[in-house]
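Take a look at my tokenised protein here and describe the backbone shape.
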Amino acid sequence: MVMTGTRIFQQVPRLLFGSGVVSRLNELLPPVGGGRLFVVDSVLEAQNVLDRLPIDDGDEVEWFPASEHEPSTDQVDQLRDRIAGRTGGLPTAVVGVGGGSTMDVAKAVSVMLTNEGPSSQYQGWDLLRRPGVFKVGVPTLSGSGAEASRTAVLLGPEKKFGINSDHSMFNAVVLDSSLISGVPADQRFHSGMDCFIHCVESLQGSMINELSKSFASQGLELCTRVFLDGGSDDELMTASYMGGVSIVNSEVG
């Protein structure tokens, strides 16, 4: 019997969770092949974040100025063309290190390395034809839920819209609370409110069921604890991930 009103529950297949686990990033990455591409929020350069990442000879780092502007389709296409045109073939993995915008760039570049044409033609729902390069999300700011979503939001020639596809979800995510411990209080609050709103919206989603509802409800409880009771960075990072999962699986909007 075919059931309507339900769909396959989607979630990042592999997770590393805990303070300091970013040092184990290599455990999630493909063991063979060429170098990896690290897309890193440029604000982290002054924080020496590269010292905490397992960057090897042959890897490449692309600094993305997330605090200056939102990611665009033109930026993604230019980075894709440069990486695709280098000698040695495609990277074995794309790693996004930063907040939601930086992780969206990593997701978009990953899928555009394997799908022809401009990224603007894939802004929409389920338009990607091929899986992207293996990709890992490493959030350094919690709240957007980008680490769990199937969307890479980009400014296009005519509109701001997401590349929405199963192919644009991360293959793995590192949830290391030590990476968000130094976030300024105001930024932590505003980003955390994104998570709170995601959870509230998810509970009203047209595809909400008991499984996705459990993620939204628990995420909401954790957000409340963080805001009202001084909850931990682990709790905020968990809430962000749960909010992202609930948005993906509740059909909001």
